[in-house]
Amino acid sequence: MKKIILNIGGMTCSACSSGLEKYLNKQKGIQSANVNLVLSIVTIEYENLSKKEIEKFIQNAGFESLGEFKGIEDVSIHRFDKIKLMALGILVIFMMYLSMGHMIFLPEIPYLNHQYVNYLATILFLLTLIFLWYGLDILKSGVKNLIHRMPNMDTLVMLSVSVSFLYSVYGYICILTGYLNNLNALYFESTCMVIYFIKLGRFLENISKSHTKDAIKKLVQITPQSAVLKVNGEEKKVSIDEVKTDDLLISKSGDKIAVDGIVESGTTYVDESFITGESMPVLKEKGSHVIAGSISYDGYIEYKAKRIGKDSTISEIVNLVVEATGTKSKIQKLADRISNYFVPVILMISVLTFVLQIILGIPFEDSLIHMITVLVVACPCALGLAVPLVAVISNGLCAERSLFLRNSDVLENARNIDTIVFDKTGTLTYGKLKIFKIYNYSSYSEKELLNRVANLEKKSSHPIQTAFTVEKKLEVKNFKTLNGMGIMGTIDGKKYYLGNDKILKKLKLEERNKKDYDYLVKNGCSILYIVEEATVLGIIGVKDVIRTDVRETILHFQEMGIDVIMLTGDNQEVSSKIAKELGIKRVIANVLPNDKKEKIEKLVQDGRKVIMVGDGINDAPSLVTATVGVSINDGTDVAMDSSDVILMNNHMKNILDLIMISKASYRIIKQNLFWAFFYNICMIPVAIGLFENHGISMTPMFGSIAMIFSSFTVVLNSLRLRRMKNESRIKN
C-alpha cells in the first residue's frame, strides 16, 4: 500500500471537501482518501495507480492537484489583492449611492440620477460587468461543481448572482426599449455586493485561517534550506535538495544540522529541544545520531547523511501531524454527512420559496429576492470550518508539547479518560538501569560473567540492556527473546539464559538462593538470573531511577478522578515498592505482553476509557487495545510505533496536556457547531421573508454580510484555543 499527500486547488467549503473525498473513495485502486479543508490537502492510500492517474481523478471531480505536499505555506496575500479590494469597495459604495442615495436625500450626481434613467442603468450595468470579472473564479467553480453533481458554496453564490444579474439585464433591456419604470427592477448593486462581500470574507478568513497553521509551519521551518558538504577536503555550500545519502557534511558552532545522520568525527553539544523538549544540550561525538534541525552550540563535527528528505525525523513528524489533522473524528464525519445534504436542501428550499410565494400572490420581484437571499445566506462555510479548524489548532498545540497524534479520534476520546495504565520500566522509570549488586556463584570472575551478560543483552531491545557494558565482544548465536521471561543465546557452544524467576520455572530449576533474592527485592531491584545450560551462575539486582515528573503527574491524575494502574512484567515485590513511592494504589505485576493486552481489554469491556502508556514495542498489543495508546519515544524513530500518540520528550506531565487539550477542543467544536446551526436556523426564515410583517427582512447584500459574520464567529472562536499555547497546564 502506498500513500501520497497532495495539495488541492479549488476547495472553498465543506461541500467541496466532502464531495471530493466521496468521489475519490469510489475510485478503483484508492483504498482511502481523507480531505483536509483547512490545509487544502488530501491524504490518499492507494495501490496499482500512478500519481498521474490520481491527479486525473481529482481533475474529473472538478478540482486541481497542485502537486505533492511539501510544507505549510503562508496564505499568499499580495498587495494587488488589497488594492483590488479597496478599489472595488469604493465602487460598491458608489453603486449604492447611485441606486439608493435619493432615498435618504443625498445630493444627486449630474446625468447619473433617476431623471436620466438610461444613463444610470447603463453605468450600473457596466460596473456590474467589472464585478462579474472579479468574481469569475467563484462563478466558474459554482458551474463546474454543479456539472459534477457536487454543488457547494460557490454553486449557491453562482446561482444567486446569475439569477439577480439576468433578471436585472432583462429590466435594463426594458429600459432601453422605453419602459423607464423598470429601474426599480434592477438589482445590479445587489449582484455586485454579494460578489464583493464573498471575496472580502474569503480574504479575511484566509488571514485568520493562516494563524491556525502556525505550529505546523514552525515544524516545517526547523530544517535548514542549505548544507555544507565536504568534497575532497573542500567545503561546499549546497541546497538541501542536493544532499544525498552517505554524503559527508559539516556542522560548525551555531549551525543547524542539515539532515539526520551519524557523526564521523569531532564533538559538539546540540540543542534538540524542538524534538525532545529537553532544554539541556546533548553531547554528540563519533557514532552519535544527529537530527535535522538541531542546533550546534559549540565544537565542530563531520557527519554522514543517513535520512534525508521525506525520510528525515522532522519530515516524518510533519507528515504525522498533517495526516492527523486530515483524519476525521466521529463528530467531523457527522458534520460532513450533514454538509453533503445541506447544499441540495438549500437549493430546494430556495426554489420552493420562489414557487410558493408566486402561488400565494407575492410579487415576482419580492419572491425572486427572497430566493436569492436564501441562496446567499445559507452558504455552509461556518459548518465546514467548525471541526477542521479546531483539529489543526489542537494538533499544533499537541505538537508544541511533543505530543504527536496519529488520528483525530484521539482528541475526541482523550476527554473521557477515567483510567490510565502505565508500564513500569522505561515508562515510569528512565529505563537506564544500574547494577545494584551481583551474586556470583560461578567459577567465572565477576568481570567475565558480566561481559557474557552484556554481550547477550546487547542483542535485546529491553531497557535492562542499558545497565551492561561490553568489555570484550563475544559471538552470540541462536539469540531468542522469551516473552515475559527474558532472553537466551549461545556463546562458545553453551546455552545461556537471562531473565526473571520464570526462567527457573521454564528450565525446572530449583531456587536455592532465596535469601539473596529477597535482599535484592527488598532494595527495590529488578532481578536477572544468569543460567548456563542448567546451572544458575548468579543473580544480578539492577535498579532503575523514577522519572522526575512522575509523582506530580500521578497526583494530578488522581485529583482529576482518574484511576492510575501500574501494569508490568516485573515481580510483585519490586513493582509494589516503586508504586508506593509514586502513590499508585493498584499494581498488576508478573504480566506477559499478551496478558497485558487481556488486562486492558477487560478494563475496556467494563466500560472504562483507558490510556495505556508504554514503550511502543513490548507493549504494542496493549497500546492498540486501549482507548488511547501513548508510546514514549527516543526522539528518532517516529514511523514504527503502533500507538495513537507518540510522546517524544517522555515527560508524563504532557499526557495531562493531551487530556486538557482534548476537553477544550471538544468544547469549542460543540460551540462552533451550535453557532453554525443556530445561524442557519435563524437566518433562513428571515431570508424567506416570514417576518416581514414584523418589520424584519433581509436583502442579498445583508445576507452575504451575515454569512461572513457566521464564518468569522467560528474562526475567532476556534482561535481561542491558541491562547493556551503558553500555558503549562490547560485549565478545564
The count of DSSP E runs of length 2 or more, i.e. the number of strands, is: 25
- Give the CATH class of the domain at 434-543: Alpha Beta
Could you tell me the mean pLDDT?
A: 81
Low-confidence stretches: 635-640, 728-732
Strand content: 15-25%
* Gross morphology: elongated
Instruction: Tell me the number of helical segments per DSSP (H or I, 4 or more residues long).
Output: 25
Helix content: 40-55%
Q: Any idea what the radius of gyration is? A: 33 Å
Structural class: alpha+beta
Kindly identify the CATH topology of the domain at 434-543: Calcium-transporting ATPase, cytoplasmic domain N
By CATH, the superfamily of the domain at 434-543 comes out as Calcium-transporting ATPase, cytoplasmic domain N
What features would you describe in this structure?
- The model is unreliable at 635-640 and 728-732 (pLDDT under 50).
- Helix 6 (153-176) runs antiparallel to helix 12 and helix 12 (364-377) packs parallel to helix 25 (700-719).
- Strands 5, 6, 7, 8, 9, 10, 11 and 12 form an eight-stranded antiparallel β-sheet that branches. Strands 13-25-24-23-14-21-22 form a seven-stranded mixed β-sheet, with helices on both faces.
- Strand 5 (226-231) and strand 6 form a beta hairpin.
- It is elongated, with a radius of gyration of 33 Å.
- Among the domains are: 2-68, Alpha-Beta Plaits (2-Layer Sandwich), CATH 3.30.70.100; 224-311, Calcium-transporting ATPase, cytoplasmic transduction domain A (Distorted Sandwich), CATH 2.70.150.10; 434-543, Calcium-transporting ATPase, cytoplasmic domain N (3-Layer(aba) Sandwich).
- By secondary structure, the protein is of the alpha+beta class.
- It is 47% helix and 19% strand.
